Every structure is written in structure tokens, then in C-alpha cells.
What we know:
It contains twelve helices and 19 strands. It is of the alpha/beta class.
Amino acid sequence: MGIVDRDIRQETGPAALAAAFLTVDLGAIVQNYRLLARKAQGAACAAVVKADAYGLGADRVAPALAAAGCRHFFVALVGEGVALRAILGPGPVIGVLNGATPGSEEACAAHDLVPVLNDACQFAAWKALARRLERRLPAILQIDSGMARFGFDPAEAAALLDAPDALDGLSLRLVMSHLACADAPDGPANAAQLSTFSEFRQRLPMVPASLSASSGIFLGPDYHFDMVRPGAALYGVAPQPGRDNPLRPVVGLRARVMQVRSVPAGTPVGYGHRAVTARDSRLATVAIGYADGFPRATDGFAGWIAGTRLPLMGRVSMDSIVLDVTDVAPGVIGPGSLVDLLGPEQGVDALAEASGTIGYEVLTRLGRRFHRTYSHA
């Protein structure tokens, strides 16, 4: 049996036309959700599925989480919420983190979405819609506890709430904030934000509260309040860099070898001749590049095949990379072979580190040219 026959396994249909393959383990996502829910120690555990479930497919991920018992979901945009409501149907609560953009409020209400009210303009627009519809509308109030991004300044929010009719027309479901440095557990910012948020929360003691996303869950029960909102951790990204990752890996990525060539020592490789072979080498050109979301800045990364590490040589091109396959036994690799880029040997965080970025960005950039397979293993 030849190399191509063994590795391609006579695929038919779309898989036979693909050059790279992404696998998404829905079972691992569910297990991660359950681990995070246990870690939250009684707080409700929502699921953040914005950006198409971090690039992995909200139409597959969200139903799997709903079947596992998740009843609260968050997206970033009203359009994402409308799409998610069509996927999940009535029942689950869908919060919109960025709030409703001007003009989208009626669509937000029509699809039973709960906007996060981040400033006075969003607050006023949502109250105005409630008056027009002559019914109370659900809402989430966000407080900026120390990130200078979304949310009311605490003093501004306090002044707003001092008005006797401040919440007329609104059913406030949650008061929330977001931690800026939760992935640095020993930093002082976390305690400062916790103090600011806890102090404001006293103004709305009967409203459920939420402060922690993925990394914040691991700061301890003081940060859990009534709801936690994991996102990247659901998809296997390490919540605390530099520490053991308790979460299961979710994605696998394999790409096809298109060509193998032998070159002498001293051969420059790729654009800009950034790499030069230090020995007589065999090089494999592999069909994946930055057009697929494989980061162009990647350095020091490697593929794997049959337990052998294949160092990346030179720059990532739009549609290809070059791997050093000199140490692979003869006959193991050739045109059509599949090399592992994300898998048992290395996960999303390893690619992120080699690219000078974070696992969140790696996941959300994974392209649509891949042949995708979903499993419930």
C-alpha cells in the first residue's frame, strides 16, 4: 500500500477535495462546560458563543451545550443573537454583550434577546422601546469596574439609579462587569475590580450578579457571584497561562503534504530566505497558510507525524508552509500524507505562543477552507 493510499483512505465527496481538516470534539466542549460549572460552586454557568462559538460553529456548539443543561448564552452582537435564537428556539436566555446598536432595538426585542446596557444612550433607547411596546423588557446592566471598555462608570450608574423612575419599563435580570487581568491571578487589579463591583452591587442587592468569565472562575468563590460566563475555556484554551490546563482539548488540525523535496545544506527556504537549512534536508510543502487562519507570524512551531516533530521552516505563506521532514523514516511521508498541526502533541495555546498571540485569536481565525468534522467522543 502506498503512502497516499494509507493516509487519504480513499476519501470521497468534499473530504477528497480538501487539503486541511479541522476536527471539533463537541463531547470535550460539554465536559469542559461541566467542569467549569462544578468549579463555579453553585453559580449558574452560562456559555459565551460569540464569534460563531469562537470560530468552531455556533450551530453545532450551542445545541450541544443546551442539551447538557446550559440555559444562558452570550453573544456579542444583535445579529449573532438573532441567528442563535433560530438555532436554539424559545427558552434559553441569550444576552448581547455589546448591547443593541442604534436601530437594532426592535429586532433585539422581537427575538427575545437581552441586551447589556453599557451607557446612558443604550439605557434610554431600551426604555423608550419598552414604552412604545407597553411592556417590560429584560435587560442586563454593565458596570465598568476598572477596564475602561464597556459599561457605566459606577458613579454615573449610581446617579442614574437615584431617579425614582430609573427602572420603569425594565426587568433587570443581571448586573455584570468584566475582569481585565483575570489571567494574572496574583495581580492587584483583580481584587480592586472585585471591590469596586461588590460595592456597586449593594445598590441592587436583589439582582443577580456576574463578574467572572473563563479565567475569573479560577480566582475563587469570591469572584463567582450568581453567574459565571466562560468562553474560551469551553474550547480548551488554558484559563491561567503557565499553569496546568484542567480543560480538555477541543480541536484537531491536520493538513496535507503536497510536495517533498531533498535539498543540500545551506538552501534558503521561503519568502525573504528567512530560514536556511543547516544540513542536507528533506522539506515538505504543506497546504495550509495564513489564508486559512494559520498565523503568519508563527515561529518555532512544528508539525508532527508518526511521533516525529517536523520543524517549521521559514515564513508562513498564504496557502502553504514548509516543514523539515528529514528525521522522518523513509516511506512514512509523501504527497497526500497528513501532518498534525493541532492534536495530541500540541494544542491551541502552543500555536498561540509560537505566534505571539493568544488562543482566543487562533480559534476565531481558523478558516472555512478546512473540511470540518464534529464528534461527540
